Amino acid sequence: MGGRGKSGKSGKRGKVAGPGLDWSIRIVAVSPGLAGFKPDVLGAQVGDSLQAQQFDIVTWGNTTSDPHQPIRTDNGQPLCDPIAGGASSRPQFVVQGAIGQTITYTCALHQGEEGSITIVPNFM
Amino acid sequence: MTSTGTVGTVAATLLAACVAILLPLGMATLDTGAPVHAQQLAPSPVADCPPTPDLSAPLTEIVSDGKGRVRGTIVLGDGRQAFPLRNNRCVQQLLRFYQTTEMPFNPTPAVPLPAPGPTLRARVGDVVQLLFLNQINVLDYGESIDVWESGRGDCDSTSAGYPGAANDTYPNCFHGSTSGNIHYHGTHTNPNGVGDNVFLQIRPSPWSNGKPVITEAVARQYLGTFFDDCEKRLRADNLSTWPTVWSDLPSTYTTWQEQLLIADGQGKPEPQQLWRGNQDPIKNGKFPEYFIGAFPFCFVVPKFPGTLPTPGARLGMGQAPGTHWYHAHKHGSTAINVSNGMSGAFIIEGDGYDGFFDKTYARFRQNTKTTWTRQQPTLVVNQYTATPNLERFPGVKGGPPPPGGGPPPLAVNGSLQPTLTMYPGQVKLLRIVNSSTVSGFYISQLPAGFVWKQTAQDGVQFDNNNYVARAQRPVFVGPANRVDILVKAPLQTNVYPFTVSQGTSVSGAQSAPPSVVLFNISVMGTGQAMTLVPAMPPRPAFLNDITPKEVSPENARTLTFKTAGQGSGQSHHTINGVQWDDPKGGYIIDIPQLNSVGEWTVFNETAGNNPIDHPFHIHINPFQITEVFDPRAPLLGKTGVAVRDAKGQVVPVYMVATTQPTLQPGQCWLNPNDKNTWKPCAAAAPSAKTNIWWDVFPIPAGIVYPVNPNQGPQVTIPGYFKFRTRFVDYGGSYVFHCHILAHEDRGMMFQVNVGPGAIGSRMQHR
Predict the structure, then answer these.
(1) Mean pLDDT value across residues B252-273
(2) Which residues in chain B are closer than 8 Å to A20, comparing Cβ atoms?
(3) Of chain A's two ends, which shows fewer C-beta atoms within 10 Å, N or C?
(4) Is B254 within the bounds of a domain?
């Protein structure tokens, strides 16, 4: 079943948000030599915090010519491998953490480029 | 096409493509005026769903011109859509889908609902000529190009541990979801070359300056007169599989594609270069698999007896007119692509079916400019989902946490619980396509007052025997099944729910009370009272039953589908113990003799607590079922509804016990210690005088006895069915597989090589 709908029980992880969703964050040039993170959601601006549920998948699409790599600001763990110019991220980042938590990240390769993901309750 | 103009444009486009690869989307654009590290929340992606159109509203169509051809362009694009959740709430998601509009979209202030791909509407005998463009913007999806190209290896990977934690290995894993192709499901046609060829892998166009480099105008320039040439050949010979080799394609197109593929492979190791992947097939006279941006599909849906140049030759079958469909079929991404919305209806009209209804109901048309059947609703059911959950929760024993409380809901034409309007006493023909990747649904009955009869299964009309036998009989519409039903509305105005049971097994759905509202029927207004047709016309002669005398014993095959580790988060899907492209082999079935008939037996040893009837689907030729054994089947009453005992428990057909149990009428004893009892209960056998044609059939799940392993050694009693099919007219390589598409992506697929020319063929992976 590819992991879909196998059980009606909530398991030990507690109540989980709604259906698993996918999100894209664009890495866009904001000034020469500086890029920003823009959630690909209608009306979002560069630097806005993406709203995502637990276990949603987030990827980054790099529209610049430079490589970028988002890493967590709290522990330095990379959220994905370095993303070449014009490429998208790998591996796909699965959002894990407590509801209400904000996962902040910066670019490991460029100072001053920051973004975040806010874990929200079930969108339902 | 003039070669001079083309060569110049080839160079220009190649340059543009290279530039696009090296200097991708939007690089030159600065997104200024916004803070770089503000931490305010992005707008919520959730909102009320947009208004839902009535199901009677026509879908976008690509229609036969009435002169023997269907011509059009299908664009594989992507964009934000209002992904239906529940309770009329939608969440915007970037989805991939088929459409007729080229990318990029003009931005709209509102996020639209999803919609099925354009309905293809051909007539039997037409030559279908579709330019396919893959214009997906790869930056919208992480690692969605087949990553083998990038030198990184294989499957999609996630920070949660996929694929390792799921024990998935390439190529039987989720991967390559922006490569595209189209399977024309239900067609009896050429499975090779530019026909119903699911081995094709058409990569997205490069993008430059926010637009795809490969556009319809560019592609048609390179293809020149290809479609005219193809149509001429296929009209002259329905059995032609032209173009069969690379050099049959226009040299302008092959030169262009070669340059694009070479440019794509620049700097990559040899095994990852797509052009290298094409070279061996081209050298060996096989049709290559890899293309970039644009591909011309051209195939005939043959009219029996057809046009043939060879004296004495004749088609063994023809194309059945009816409700078929099309969908994404790139191995590794069928589940995510179809559940994103890459599917649509493919209606093939014929005089004996549509013509019959059109004549009968002509005076009830609401618009005299088109036929009655063209005014009937097509309902494409889908379970919209994003990335498969296994990538989020690999290796989680007992299954992942429930996404939203169960399987994805069933949407109809992109909406949850939309409305179909009918006037009191009106008759409509509902063409229902279940394009869901996981669930089937059981239509057990319609609300009181409705009269209904099924008229076709999987795009093949019923004859009168079946029409009568299945009047108001319940029907399970498994993943990929289609049913046509005539429905007559009651005289009482009201809103009536069309309610079904959703499930992954026939017996499970039959045993559950209908609880899912698929759509509502609003009965209102006035109109002339109508009646259901009293009888169906005969089927075309080529759809007569396959007789035992036709069957070639050497074509007998036995297949066993099995999901091991069900619910472990590491489930493993096999056929005869092997997976697609298993290095040990065993995943190819050879049928050396074209124009021969086979009888196959298909077992299902999947026997977990959550039954899964793997929906068996074979391409190109439909089949007829001669025997079904479902050890979990409930006893059905005269109306097809499960019989319940005094305690409300469903009464099974099979009493499973090691000693003779007490049996009710209609029941049989299933003895785990005696395989002679593992067969259909004669009392429950169907009584139709003629056989129904299918192209998908759910293989009944097995059972385990005793259920509790502490009560003794467990025995698995598999479910099975037997079918007969004609391997006729079109040789070549095609596939059969489970139509729970995540299972197919993860290995539950075999190749069939039919005819001497196909033996030894195999798909490759780069």
Answers:
(1) 91
(2) 385-387, 389, 392, 403
(3) C
(4) yes
Q: What is the mean pLDDT of residues B533-553?
A: 94
**Do B465 and B551 lie in a common domain?**
no
B614 vs B696: CA distance, rounded Å: 10
pLDDT value for B12: 40
Specify if A75 maps to a domain. yes
Q: Is the peptide bond before B163 cis (omega within 30 degrees of 0)?
A: yes
In a domain, A124, yes or no: no
pLDDT for residue B25: 33
Distance from CA of B477 to the nearest CA of A (A): 18
Position B672 pLDDT exceeds 60: yes
pLDDT at B649 over 90: yes
Domain tally, chain B = 3
Cβ contact (<8 Å) for B37 and A113?
yes
Higher pLDDT: B763 or B365? It is B365
User: What confidence score (pLDDT) does residue B400 get?
Assistant: 52
Average pLDDT over residues B568-588: 94
Q: Residues B552, B505: one domain? A: no
DSSP state of B49: P
A20 has a chain B CB within 8 A of its CB: yes
- Which CATH number fits the domain that encloses residue A37? 2.60.40.420
Are residues B190 and B271 located together in one domain of the fold? yes
CB pair distance less than 8 Å for B392 and A2: no
The CA distance from B230 to A51, in Å, is: 51
Q: Rounded to the nearest 5°, which phi and psi values hold at A21? A: -120, 165
Chain A 85-114, residues with CB within 8 Å of chain B CB atoms? 85-94, 96, 102, 104, 112-114
* Whether B490 and B598 share a structural domain: no
Q: What is the CATH number of the domain that holds B294?
A: 2.60.40.420
Q: Could you tell me if A71 lies within 8 Å of chain B, comparing CB atoms?
A: no
Whole-number average pLDDT of chain B = 90
Q: What is the total count of domains within chain A? A: 1
- Structural tokens at position B101: 């509009």
Domain assignment of residue A97, yes or no: yes
Instruction: Looking at the structure, tell me whether residues B508 and B564 fall in a common domain.
Output: no
What interface predicted TM-score (ipTM) does this complex get? 0.90
Contact B567 A6 (CB under 8 A): yes
Q: Which amino acid is at B727?
A: F
Cβ neighbours for A43, distance < 8 A, ≥ 6 positions apart: B42, B43
Q: Which domain holds residue B594?
A: 545-758
Give residue B270's pLDDT: 80
- Tell me, yes or no, whether B444 lies in a domain: yes
Give residue B338's pLDDT band: very low, low, confident or very high (50, 70, 90): very high
Higher model confidence: residue B390 or residue B231?
A: B231
Which is it for the CA torsion A6, A7, A12, A15, positive or negative?
positive
Shortest distance, CA A109 to any CA of chain B (angstroms): 15
> Residue B584: is its pLDDT beyond 50?
yes
Greater pLDDT, B719 or B392: B719
pLDDT of residue B1: 29
Digit-coded pLDDT (tens) for B453-469: 999 999 999 999 999 98
Quote the domain boundaries for residue A58: 22-119
Distance CA B642, CA B511 (A): 6
Is B146 part of a structural domain of the chain? no
Residues B597 and B636 placed together within one structural domain of the fold: yes
pTM (2 d.p.): 0.93
Are B394 and A21 in contact (CB < 8 Å)?
no
Question: 3-class DSSP state for residue B745?
Answer: helix
Count CA atoms closer than 13 A to B4's CA, side-chain side.
0
Evaluate whether B435 touches B324 at the Cβ level (below 8 Å). Answer: no
Do B519 and B549 lie in a common domain?
Answer: no
Q: Is residue A58 part of a domain?
A: yes
Q: Are residues B487 and B552 in the same domain?
A: no
Residue B103 in domain:
yes
* Torsion sign, CA atoms B356, B362, B365, B367: positive
Please state which of the ranges B601-605, B636-640, B691-695 shows the lowest mean pLDDT: B636-640
